[in-house]
UniProtKB/TrEMBL annotation:
Organism of derivation: Photobacterium lutimaris
PANTHER family reported for this sequence: BIFUNCTIONAL COENZYME A SYNTHASE-RELATED, DEPHOSPHO-COA KINASE-RELATED
Localization in the cell: Cytoplasm
Domain of life assignment: Bacteria
Designated name of the protein: Dephospho-CoA kinase
Assigned EC number: 2.7.1.24
Major place of residence: cytoplasm
BP GO terms, sorted: coenzyme A biosynthetic process
Gene that this sequence comes from: coaE
Catalytic activity: 3'-dephospho-CoA + ATP = ADP + CoA + H(+)
Length: 206
């Protein structure tokens, strides 16, 4: 089984950019956001349960989930949000575990935005945190999503603090600088993770 490296970071930290740099080195990426979409695809038990709870109005004309309508529904109903979390979180976790078991690269990357908040680092061998100054997070998120500063700060306040993530980290990538610097940090960690995976695979099993 591959060594599992957890990858997390706050909004606007550059997790996707970092994950793509590892993917370019032929490392398998398991992305929680993608898995979350997969467990509610048409024909899935997840989508069937949501339709049974909320009716077929929650679907788009092509039979897929109307995500914006679902977001609106849970925004004003905390009980419904809790029901949805209890339905989907175990499915997402199970699918991530299946994808980890199927990984073919020497190590794999498990990308979870709310890794520390949901204590999912238990699924990993090491935790890699993409760290960035808060001012840069706010500016990047505003530019990317075209949203006001106050909205970005509300999202930041709902996530783990920078200090909490850094305290949980085994490895840290600083993403305040340019792309060349980021590439160098990823390459250095890639070589370290390859060495760790070789070490793990050479350890005798009892």
């Amino acid at each position: 089984m591959s060594l599992v490296i957890g990858l997390t970071g706050g909004i606007g930290s550059g997790k996707t950019t970092v994950a793509n740099l590892f993917a370019a080195k032929h490392i398998d990426i398991i992305d929680a956001d993608i898995v979350a979409r997969e467990v509610v695809e048409p024909g899935s038990t997840g989508l069937q349960a949501i339709v049974e709870k909320l009716g077929s109005d929650i679907l788009l004309t092509d039979g897929s989930l109307n995500r914006s309508k679902l977001r609106e529904a849970i925004f004003s109903d905390s009980q419904l949000k809790e029901w949805l979390n209890q339905l989907l979180h175990p499915m997402i976790r199970e699918k991530m575990q299946q994808d980890i078991a199927a990984a073919q690269s020497p190590y794999c990357l498990l990308v979870v935005p709310l890794m520390v908040e949901n204590n999912l680092q238990a699924m990993t061998d090491r935790l890699l945190v993409v760290d960035v100054d808060e001012a840069i997070q706010v500016a990047r998120t505003q530019q990317r999503d075209n949203v006001p500063t106050a909205q970005v700060r509300r999202i930041l306040a709902s996530q783990a603090s920078r200090e909490q993530r850094l305290a949980a980290a085994d490895d840290i990538i600083c993403n305040n600088g340019n792309g060349d610097n980021l590439e160098q940090q990823v390459t250095k960690l890639h070589l370290e993770y390859l060495a760790l995976s070789r070490q793990q695979n050479n350890t005798p099993q009892c």
